[in-house]
Every structure is written in structure tokens, then in C-alpha cells.
Write a structure and sequence with these properties.
Chain lengths: ~500, ~500
């Protein structure tokens, strides 16, 4: 085989792995949305089997050999080209995975599948003890994973790299620390303001059928394509792709809270728009894959917060919201509504937190899981540690574990090292939005006219179609001309909040 | 390896194939019920890939060697024991599949997946020409399949054996001919009666939400377990299992026709009850698999017709039906309703046909597909041939292909040789029901009291838990003490219809 033939064989192999991964994504989506309660045990077996198959192919020595040869060929002379990035990125993943024994991969898959089912029950019954053994096992397996791969600084680096390739714990901790240092006085300024948005208007009766329809309408308006995706209901909202034109988002409804499903839907639609914007013909290969979870999250946060919580957006959508929810909103002004959805106030549930305090929720989880992975904290002590951190950072404590340590699906699904990417996403979102406005001009007029495609197409071009040809750090720099920083986010928050709270 | 170790290796291999097959079942169920319209092309690729994987493992020479060795061992001294049947049945499947080239298997999978999507459109648009190329290709591939496997009498034998292992075209044609000979005068007797049930009462307004709830209630009452299954909406109703406790049925609703979804739901629930009644610990192995599609259909027909269309059943359910559909049924008596749902009258849509003429729909399809496979009929001429047969057998012709040759999903999904099993099911259903009543006594009192578990448990024991340890012919004989015959069905129909139509 010459290099070109080898490269074709490589792509074929990667695309076959993707058939299994996308099938796996369907099994998982189905488990969250449709699986009969009795079907859990066998679904866990199916997922375990498939994980083993994916691992076997991903670590096939013949595949490794191909990657080794190609990474020494002319083809990688441009590391960020389609071909170069394909070889180098697949090689990075191969090397990482090859270090994991099949037994560990299968145990993790089984523990995650069963863990999620146990978590759902434990959360419903507000019974941490029910989930505790699964949680202990999961963290112990993740630590084992880090040891198997190896690290220089901290085992947490290995886990972080799964979600934000190339990022280090040290760098991330530093940027989050800087963010926190500026957030705390900003949140304090809000607290000291005499203005208090009336958030009770968001807690009125919002019939679920109307929420579903309105959420669908808004997510379609910003560009989520329902011919290439769908929306379902789950415990914990997520976005999953199981094909280049099959991107599924989920949400959960609370009949007496507007934000939960509406901003959740915009958020997941933002993820979905990213997936739908990737290059289909490169599906299953790095140039057609998302860059990192931080970049993924930047897309969801951008649509959720920078668009969906903007004044211009509600110029367009508030009259429609009033017609969908006449009971709840008939006596509410657009200005009151805008203040309410931008209210900043310590709260307990991450996915319902405001744009500013949200990052404190993340930093808590980032610190806790780092401590567990580094052996400084036992999983059995997580509820107490969780509550203590909430007291320290936000001045409040959950009255139940269901609203505390049990609220997120992540750990039950083995997603350790993942949380930080949410705040990285907030940082990138502000930087991308600034860059878009500096190229396209002020976007408010477009938003007021219900025109979002200009921004979407800019993101398609600048971010989505770049895929994973370079790491997030480089992508951010090349799109914005700036390195990663907390300042654009802080500036954005300060501008908006100083207007809402008049400081 | 000793024989026991070999047998364990065999079971492991078979269960791994089942992981892939049950995953495949989910991909297909999802395609029918949830897949976004844009997702079809990639789903076809996934199914093609998975079909190839299943075929590769099902025809793995090492697996064949294991089967060869075990089939000469002591373990098969009792061919209908768990162990014996596992070896012999898997060997039969292995030998059949090994004869199919991987290329053909993959082409078939692709053609079926795309064929179903084309069929849905062609049917919606009533445009046979749109579906014609797919149909031609599908039948040609099925003929190729029969040639690859080889046959003595007719290529159709090979296809029939896929669904009714061990049955021959000759035998099936004979029993269907005998059935037809008695059906025709019986239907003629109905036609000559002065009584005409008022079937317009079934064509009133039956709101879909109420139909869904009532169908769910009735299917749960007869024993379909919703903790181990679910019910969704599709174009063409089906039942699919994707795990020992994950059995999914589908139905379609017509807001102005009661029968379509109600009896369809009971029918699919009957299939589901069979799947849920199989031995879980043998899942993926012949003793934990259905015996044949004829036996499968006997279970759906038994619950749909012998239970669901009985007078005793409606003693229980008619008052509930009146409360679900007060507008439609307030002025209808139980007796009028019972006559209407047992009305016998030539009609165009198989799945909505009555218990008696239904078999003529089947015999038409059986004869047409046999003719195509044997080269006596071109697929392009199917619409004309279809219409001519309907004229000949039922005295009516469809006004459109959508209500004619395009009405069934089967051919688009490559299911050729399948239709006959529907009538075999009707025959077995009557024989099983007679056997149950001769052991358990008259079941009417139980049905009137809403008590169906006695019958369900009898079927669990006598039929479901036997799995595929023996062929359908032998199973029928051992459960009923009789060989396959058209007479119990004819007797059952004559008893009921002579009362309804007074002849």
C-alpha cells in the first residue's frame, strides 16, 4: 500500500468505529428516553458488549501500525489540514485508548450503564446511600483509568484531556480562579443593588404542551433543523448525535417554571446546531468532529445566554411568549420579563442557575472531583463536602441530596473531568460572540427581526466547519485573535447586569 | 476443550450475535418510529454495517467447526432438549447462512433499509412507479438468496423456511387450499344472509387519545407487561424485541375507525406476550426463542380474534368502551357492537380485514410472491396481478395502489415467504384455543370477569416456554394432540358467524 491507500484504509477503519459509536449513541439515547423499566439489565449488557467492540477496533494493533506509518509520512506535513489532523488526532486517541485494558473498558461501560439507572432511582427517592456504592466504584475505575494512561502532574489531567484535548488541570484551574476573582465582586454588586427582579413571574403556571411548542419554535428559529434532529423528554437534558443528519436533543419540563425547559432547549439546540454544522462528508473523522467539549459548550451557551437572554431576542419573542402563556404573562412587561430571566441569585440547581453564578456551580464540581481523583476526598463524604462548598461559594445549602450532590447525571455516567468544560464554554462563547460582532457589526437589529442565520452561518464557517483540525486553544486564537481569557465574559456580564441592577 | 466447554463457547458466541441482532432491532424500531427524516441515508449505512457484522459472526468458520463437532457429540442425543435443540437449531441456521455471500447480505440489508423509506413515500403519494425499482431489486435479491442456499422443489421453499423452519411450499399450499375450499362457501353463506351488521358505528369519531388509552388498557389486561415493553405509533404495526424484557409494539390510529388500532394493538400485544413469555435465561438461544412465525402469529391471532372478538370479552369491555367513546357508542347496544366487529365482508386492507376473509388476503399474497420468485410474474406487473386476484377472490378491486399492492411493508423490508405464516397462525390459534379449553374448561366466565391470566399462563407453559426446542409441526402436535388442520378454524368461524348471521 502506498500512503494514499493507507490513508484510505485508515478512514475506512475510523468510519467503521463510528458506525459502532453512533449505534451506541442510539442505545444510550433510547435508554434515557424510551427504554421500558425492565429493559435496563440487558441494555447494560448490550452497551458493555458494544464498548468492548469499539475498544477492540480502536486499539487494533494493525490500526496502530497504520497510524504509526502515516504519522511519519509526507501526509502530516500540514498538521492542521484535513489529512494531517485526521492522522494526528486519531493517533492521539489510539495511543490513549491502547493503554486501557479491555477489562477496565468493559467494567466502566457496565458501571456507567447500571450507575445511571441507580442514579435515577436514588435521585427520585432522595437516597444518596443507594447511589453511594456505584459512585465509589465509578470514581475508583476513573482513577484506575488515569493510572493506566499515565500522567506527569496529576491524574486529573488524563481525565480532563478526554473532554478538552490538550488542556491541563493547571491552566484550567488558573483561568477559573481568575474568573472567580472577578465574579465574586460582581455578584456582590448585584446583591447590594436595590433592584430585585420579580422572578415569581417565571414560577407561574406554564402548561407543558405550550412550553414544548414554544421551545420547539424558538429552537427552530435560531437554526436547529428538525428534519435532521428531534426533541424528547428526559430526566437530564442532553444532545446526542447518531448520524450526520440525526442530532437529538432532550429537555425536561416543569409546569411551574419557565426557564427550565426553555433555556434548556435553547442550550441543547446550540449543541445541536454545532453538530448539524459539522462537515457531513467528514463524518466519523476528526475534520468532521467537534473540537472539544469546551468549544461544544461555547455554542450552547452562546445561543442560550448571549442570544437567548439578550434584550433584542425578547423584542422578537416576548409577544409570542405572551400568546403562548397568556395566563402567566398577561400582566408582565417585556422589561420585567427581561430582568427576571437575567436575575442573578445564588441557587441550588446548576442547570437552572443564572449566567453568572453558574460558573461557581462548576468550580465547586471541578474542585470536588479533582479532590476525589487525587485521593483527598472519599466519595462517601461527597454530600457533606458538596453542601459545605455551596455554603462557602454561594451562601446556601441544599435541603436534600436530590437537589444537591445527586442532581447531575455526569458522575453516574462516568463523566469525570467534564464539568470544567462548561465554564470554558462560557469563556469561549463570549469571545466568539465579540469576534462575530466585530466582523458582522451589531447583531441586535437582526435578532429583533428574528434573523439568526447570519450569526449561525458565521459560526458554521468559523467554528463548526473547522471540526477538530486543531485543538481548542488554537481554534479560539485563530477565530478571535485573542488567547483564552475570562475578561470578555466578565465584560458581557457587567454590561448587562449593571443595566438590570443599576450599579 | 471438552464437550461442555465447547457448548459454553457456542452459547457465548450465539449470545454475542444476539447483542448485535437486538441492537439491530433497536435501529430498525427507531427508523420506523423516531428517526428524523434526514437520518435515513446514514441509518441505512449503519444497518448495512451491522448486517455484515452479524453475518460475519453467524458464518464464522470456527463457529461452524464448533457446531460440527458438537452435533456429533453425546450432547445432541436428545434433539429436543435445551442442549440438543441449541446445537441442532444453530447448526441449521449456520449452514443456511454460510451459503450466502457477504456481498449479498449487505446488498439486501441496504436495499431493505432504503426500500422501506421509498415505500413510505410511494404509499403516501400513491405512486407505485416510485417503488417499482426497489421492488424489482428486492425480489431479484431474494431469488438470488434462494439460489445460493439451494432447493429441491422450488426456490420459494428456501424463503419460507426462513420464517417457518421445516415447512415446505407444497404442504403449506395444500393446507391453504383446503382452508380456501371451506372458506368460500362459508363467506358465501354470510353474503346470502338477510342480516347485515351496522358497521358504520365503527366508522364514527373515535378520538385518537382515547383510542390510545383504551388500547393500552385492554392490552395490559390480557397480559402485555408495560414494565417490559412499550407501545408507539408507526405506518405499519409490528412487534419487535430488543431484549428479554424489552418488547415493543406499535400501532396506527385512524380517528374515524375503531378497529384499526384496537384490534391491531391486541394483535401486537399477543406477539408481545409470546416474547415476554419466553425463557429469559435462554435469551439468544433456541430454547429462549420463538418457534416459528406461524406459532408467533398464532399467539397474536388468538388474543386478537379468539379472545378479542369473543362475546365474553365484550361483556367485560363494552361498558368501558362506551365510557371511552361516549359520542360514538352511546346509542349502540353490546349486541350490535359485537356483530359489527365480527362482520364478514370483502375489503381491501389486509390488516383491517375480518377473521374469515383475512385468509384470502394472505392466499393472494402467497400466490403472487411465489409466482414472482418462480419467475412466472414480473414485479412491474404486480399492481395488475394484485387487482385481478382481488377481483377473483374477493370480488372487489382497490381504487388505488396505496390501498392495493402498496399497503404492506413486507416486500419493502425483504420479507418474502412471510405472508403464509399469518394463515398458519390462524390455524394454530384455533387449535391451541381448543386445547386450552379442553384442559382448562370453558373460558367465557373468566373473560367476562376480566380474568385472562389463566389462559396466558397456560400458553406460557405449553407454548412460550417451549421456545424453538422443536419445529412448529411437532410443537402443534404435542400441545394439541392433532396435526395441523384447517378444521378447528373453520368450526370456530362457522359457530360464531352462524350465530351473528343466523344461518
Amino acid at each position: 500500500m502506498n500512503d494514499v491507500e493507507k490513508f484510505e484504509a485508515l478512514c475506512r477503519h475510523a468510519k467503521e468505529i463510528k458506525y459502532l459509536e453512533s449505534t451506541n449513541a442510539l442505545l444510550e439515547w433510547d435508554q434515557q428516553t424510551k427504554l421500558p423499566s425492565g429493559g435496563g439489565a440487558y441494555r447494560a449488557e448490550q452497551l458493555t458488549f458494544l464498548a468492548g467492540e469499539i475498544h477492540r477496533r480502536s486499539t487494533d494493533p494493525a490500526y496502530g501500525e497504520l497510524l504509526g506509518e502515516l504519522s511519519n509520512s509526507e501526509l502530516v506535513s500540514e498538521p492542521n489540514s484535513d489529512v494531517g489532523a485526521t492522522v494526528l488526532e486519531l493517533k492521539h486517541r489510539y495511543e490513549k485508548k491502547s493503554k486501557l485494558p479491555k477489562r477496565l473498558v468493559e467494567e466502566l461501560a457496565r458501571a456507567c450503564s447500571l450507575g445511571q439507572q441507580v442514579w435515577i432511582e436514588a435521585r427520585e427517592q432522595d437516597d444518596f446511600s443507594k447511589f453511594a456504592p456505584s459512585l465509589k466504584q465509578l470514581f475508583s475505575l476513573k482513577r484506575e483509568e488515569a493510572e493506566a494512561v499515565g500522567y506527569e502532574d496529576t491524574p486529573y489531567d488524563v481525565l480532563l484531556d478526554d473532554y478538552e484535548p490538550g488542556a491541563t488541570t493547571r491552566e484550567v484551574a488558573a483561568v477559573l480562579a481568575a474568573l472567580k476573582d472577578e465574579l465574586v465582586p460582581l455578584i456582590e454588586a448585584v446583591r447590594c443593588s436595590d433592584r430585585t427582579p420579580d422572578i415569581s413571574i417565571l414560577r407561574r403556571s406554564y402548561p407543558i404542551a405550550a412550553q414544548a411548542e414554544f421551545g420547539r419554535l424558538a429552537s427552530a428559529a435560531i437554526g436547529f433543523d428538525y428534519e435532521r434532529g428531534r426533541l424528547d423528554t428526559t430526566h437530564h437534558p442532553f444532545c446526542a448525535e447518531m448520524g450526520p443528519s440525526d442530532v437529538r436533543i432532550t429537555t425536561r419540563y416543569d409546569a411551574s417554571f419557565f426557564n427550565s425547559s426553555f433555556f434548556g432547549t435553547l442550550h441543547e439546540a446550540g449543541h445541536g446546531i454545532y453538530e448539524q454544522g459539522l462537515r457531513s462528508e467528514q463524518y466519523g473523522l476528526p475534520p468532521g468532529s467537534y473540537c472539544s467539549l469546551g468549544i461544544h459548550e461555547s455554542q450552547s451557551r452562546l445561543w442560550e445566554n448571549l442570544v437567548g437572554r439578550s434584550r433584542a431576542f425578547w423584542e422578537r419573542f416576548f409577544p409570542q411568549a405572551q400568546s403562548f402563556f397568556p395566563e402567566a404573562l398577561k400582566d408582565v412587561s417585556q422589561c420585567e420579563f427581561f430582568a427576571a430571566i437575567n436575575d442573578v441569585r445564588p441557587s441550588l440547581i446548576r442547570v437552572e442557575a443564572d449566567e453568572a453564578t453558574y460558573n461557581l456551580h462548576i468550580i465547586i464540581r471541578f474542585q470536588l472531583e479533582q479532590a476525589v481523583i487525587e485521593g483527598a476526598l472519599d466519595t462517601d463524604d461527597l454530600p457533606e463536602a458538596w453542601n459545605a462548598k455551596y455554603q462557602e461559594f454561594l451562601g446556601i445549602q441544599p435541603e436534600s441530596n436530590a437537589n444537591g450532590v445527586l442532581q447531575d447525571i455526569h458522575w453516574s455516567a462516568g463523566l469525570v473531568g467534564y464539568f470544567a468544560t462548561y465554564s470554558l464554554g462560557n469563556l469561549y462563547a463570549s469571545q466568539f460572540f465579540d469576534a462575530a460582532e466585530s466582523e458582522l457589526g451589531d447583531l441586535d437589529q437582526a435578532f429583533k427581526a428574528g434573523e439568526f442565520s447570519m450569526l449561525k452561518e458565521w459560526l458554521n464557517r468559523k467554528v463548526h466547519q473547522q471540526g477538530a483540525r486543531c485543538r481548542s486553544k488554537l481554534l479560539g486564537e485563530s477565530v478571535t485573535g485573542q488567547s483564552l481569557s475570562h475578561q470578555p465574559l466578565i465584560r458581557h456580564l457587567r454590561d448587562k447586569l449593571s443595566a438590570v441592577y443599576d450599579f
